[in-house]
Structure formats: C-alpha cells, structure tokens
Amino acid sequence: MIPIITIDTLSKTFRSADGDEVRALDGIQLTVEQGEFISFIGPSGCGKSTLLRIIADLIQPTSGTLRVNGKSAEQARKDRDYGFVFQNATLYEWRTIIKNVELPLEIMKHSKDERRARAREMLRLVELDDFEDRYPWQLSGGMQQRVSIARALAFEPGILLMDEPFGALDEMTRERMNNELLRIWTTMKDMTVIFVTHSISEAVYLSSRVVIMSPRPGRISEIIDIDLPRPRGPETRDLDQFFQLTSRVRHSLRQGITLE
Amino acid sequence: MSNDVIKNDSLLRTTTLTAAPVAVAAFDNRTLTRDLLALGTIFFFIACYHIQNPLLIFNTQFGSAFRNATLQPAMVVALIACLIALVVPLWNEAHGKFSPLQIGALVILGGGTLFYAVAILLDVNLAGVVAGVPQSAFTERLTDESPVALLENAMGLVTPLVPVAILAVIFLWQPWRRGQVYTRALNKQAAALFVGVLVLLTWEGLINLFQIQQFLLPKPSVIGAAFIEDYPRLVSIGWNTFQNAFWGFVFGCGAGILTGIVAARFVSFSRALLPIAIGINAVPIIALAPIMNNWFGALNPASKIAIVAILTYFPTMISTVRGLTAVEPMSMELMKTYAAGQMTIFRKLRLPTALPFIFSALKVCTTLAMIGAIVSEYFGGSTAGLGFRIRDDAGLFKYPEAWSAIFIAALYGIFFYLVISALERALMAWHISFRETGR
After folding, report:
1. CA angle, A72 then A74 then A77, to 5°
2. Which residues of B touch A87 (CB under 8 A)?
3. DSSP symbol at B122
C-alpha cells in the first residue's frame, strides 16, 4: 500500500474577531492510502470540512505536519494533484456546461481539441453529454453537482476531495448520486477519494474506511473499517452487515458527543 | 427509479414544452431586428438624399449646419452597415441563391448606396457631373449666381432613386409576411402604446379645451410639425451634442473602468479611494460647467466633454470596483484549487462577475452623458448644439422649436441607450435578465 496523505499531530486554531481562540482541530493523526475511499463524518463543528480544506491547502494548519503525495500541501495544490468538489456545484453561470468542465483544462493550457474531447468524455461519464450546450441554470441541482464532479475529474487528478457534495440534495437523488460516484471511482483506477458527509448511511455505503470525528476540539474519535463486499449496489443497503455498520457508526458518533 | 431520473425527465419535458415559445421568442427578436434594420436603411437613404440636395437643405435658416463634418460620413457608414446587416441573413436564408427580382432590388440598393457613398465621402456628385453643375454647388451655400436650374436638373435625376430604393428595401424586408409577429409584438407592447397615445391625445385635447397659450405648452401636433419642418437641422445640431456626450462617455467610463480595475486589485487603494469617489459622486457635478467653460473655453467642445467625462467617471468606477470584488468565495477557492494565477482569475472569474455591474453603470451613464452634454451648453457653447438651441429658442418664444429640440435629444438618448444595451446583450447573453422563459 502506498500512503498518499499522511497527517501527523495536526491542529488548527481559529482566532475570532474579539480575540477568542477556537480550537477547530487537535492532534489529528491519519494516513490515507492510494485507492482508498475514506469518509469524514461527525456533527457540525467537529472540523471535518476544516480538515479537508487543510489537505487542499485552502487554509493552513496551526501546527503539525501534512504530506500529500510526499509533498507539502501547497506544492500538491500547485501541482494540481487533487480535484475538489464543493458543497454547491460552483459552476460559472456565464459558461455553458461543457465550457465549465473545460475550465481547469483551459487554466492548465491544454490544447483546444484536447479540452473539448476530454470534457465530452467526462460529461459522458456523468451521463450529461446531451446537455453540453446548456447553461447551469437550466439544470437541476443533482445534474449541476454531477457537472462539478466531471469538472473535478477532467484533469485526471489522483485525489478527489469532496466537501458534503450531496448535502443539498434530497434522499432519493443522493442515493442515485452515491451509485454514480461509486461507478466513477471504479472507472478511475487507483483514485483516492476523501469524502466529507454528515449522512451515516452515505458514509458506510461509499467508504472503505469511515473516520468519525467529535467536536470541541475537533478530534478523530474512531476509525471504522467498512468491509462490505464490492461492487456495491442498491441491494448492499439491505444487508444485515450494512445495518450493523451504520449502527456502529451511530453509536460511535453518539459517544463522541456525550464525551463533552 | 430514483428521483433524479424523474427530475431529469420532468426537466426534459419542461424544456420541450418551453422549446416552442423560446424558438418563437428568438424568431421575434431576429425579425424585429430585421424590421429595425429595414427602417434604418430607409431613414439613412432619405438622410443621405437630404445631405446631397442643396435645394432642400439651404432653405432652412441654419441649413448649412446639416453639412456637418462628421455627421455626413457617419450617415453613409450607417447606411452601408444597415444594408449589409439586412442582406446577409437574407443571403443565408436563401442559401446563396436570390431570385431575379431580389437581385434587381439589391442592384438598386447597392447602386444607390454607392452613389451617396461616392458623393458624400469623395465629394463627387455623379448627377452633378452629368448635368454640368460645379461640385461646389453641393458643398457650399447657394448664391444667386449659382446655376439653380442646372442644379434642379441634377437633383431631378437623383430624386426618383429614393422612392425606388425604399420600394426595394420593402421588397427585401417583406413585412407583410410577418403579420403574426407584429400582432404578438403589438400585444406585448399594447399597454405602453395605449398609455403613450392616451397621454398625447389628452395633452392635445386639454390644450384645446382650456385654450392654453402656446408659449406655456405647445400642442404635440405643433411640436411634431416643427420637428418635421426642421429635422435636418435638428439631426445635425443633435449630432454635435451627441458627439460631446459620446466622447465624454468614452473617456469618463473608460477611465472609470481602468481605475476601477486598479482599485479592485489593490485593496488599500480602493479603501482609500472608494469613500472619496462615493462622496464626489453625490456632488452635483453639472455645477462645474461654468468652470470648465473657463478652463477650456465655452466654444471648445473639450469643456462639454470634460463635464460628461467627470459625470460618468464616478458611477462607472464605483460599479467596476463593486463588481470585481463581488466574487463568491467558493468560486474563488475553486480557482485556488487550480493554482490559477492572478491574471487568469481576473479574466476568467472577476471580469465576467463584474460585467453586469459595469453594464448597469454604463446604461445609467448614457443618460448622464446626454444630460451633461445638453445642460453644459446652457452655460454657453457652440450655437450648433442642442442645449444652446433649446435655451435660445425658448428665449425667443419659439417654444415648438425648443420642444422639437428636446424631442431629438430624447431620440439621441434612446439611440445611445439601445446601442449600449445591444452590446450588453451580445457580451452577456448568459445573464439572468436575458433568460427567455417563453412567457
């Protein structure tokens, strides 16, 4: 196994406007291996999104070390080692769907033909190839989020960071998106996914490991291996093992909160 | 089946349902553009005829003003542009094949345009050459010694060209085939038209009823008659004022956008500059007009251009800074995950975000520019300017003339606004305000 992300005694303290210090993360210790699908789950305020943003170098840790692909997080960002999917689709409304998917390729100075071909391929992957000339507002929320996944994957990053990407979708759409995501992850060989969520069943269904976090200060309280058989599909959700794992995660989460 | 499929499905269904009205709306826009182009071509043909016909022009007192140095070429260029814009889509629709009648119409229009282009741009009136009239008769004021009879002959050769050209435009335009579109457009604008007509009728009626004196408020019919009588002169002096407004707008808004970009780039700069700019923007800048007259000279257009530039600078600058800094944090973070440089972020994110802000400022500035150009002439300026004419005519109790000058000012203002709106539509068709939902 090749470690992709190693985090050692990492902590983050925010300072509020009136000088109060808030410890968002404390003593985080984690190694993510290549090809893993790992979820961060926890109540709001546990720092799961903060941790993801630190890995993405969107914010900097207060102390501790972090290596992404054996480099500093900043270097990894500059080398475009990861794709990031935000809570909102964050599509640029002045660009058509295909031009949105082409955006990272434009910035990375790929040729025009290559951009177009690559974006088409990605849109086919998320099954939106009929919509390439539409504008974002003409698509439903779920479709927009699929476009943003296509955009994140367009430049073939080895790591996909997802910050509650399906949080705004209804339960049914979310389950369908979960299946799509698993299918895409299987297609992309050795892609590592870090997935932040507050849905227990989503975390269990998708992941190979679930990282459970507790708040104030944000800590990792438990890491649970999910040994559900793959490929997973709608029938996976009916397995006894699935129920056992979700209740294990639920208990662990509850403990984390009562610890307070 | 999960919900997303259903959602997709319903989206597809709604799009097919709305597809038809959207297509109709697009068709409306296209044909209405064609209508405007056809009417524009006719207008510019008549105007070019007037420019080249000294017998018509020099009858009016200020007629020579119509022989305006920049207006004449502008009219010819506008005529050519209208004609090309009108014919190209027809050519595409006909797949490159025109019927003999259409070719005939095109030859007439092309020939007529060429005639005026040569006559006005190169100062060679071919009809004058044929009739033996010296070319100076077309560019200088007529004197008693001028060969008026020869001139009448020459213009007699050209006069039939105008009605024939108008017929040719109408033939290519084919308005009778778009009755449905006009009915729909009429229905859409019915309320506005109704109110407009009602206001004019009430105006006319009330003045008749109460026997109001002409110098207080002339009747719309009297203003209309004065306008038609005097339109070459009005177009000409309106053009002078419009040019001041236009160049002031270009300098003011251009500087506003550029300094806005710089101010948005350096936060400390904008923090220092923006409150001052907002403060100055609250000052009635038009009050500076007499001072600008003092600086640049009342007769120098620079004094008017300066007023307009100052008037339009601040709103544009403020809106540009606001627009460039109105970027959503997440959109910005997305750029950061791509390790995009400042230049890329500016071009691909900040500028598109700022465009709606900039354009709403530009549209406001078209009106400000016209106000600035006209009002600054009240404090002294060229006699061939709208502001000067309005003040002068009103002072001489020539109220219908003053009102018709106000009317041409409105026309130029609307024209200016429409041009900027068209530019906006072309550059940001994606924007929410242009989404055609079919209803």
Report:
1. 110
2. 330
3. S
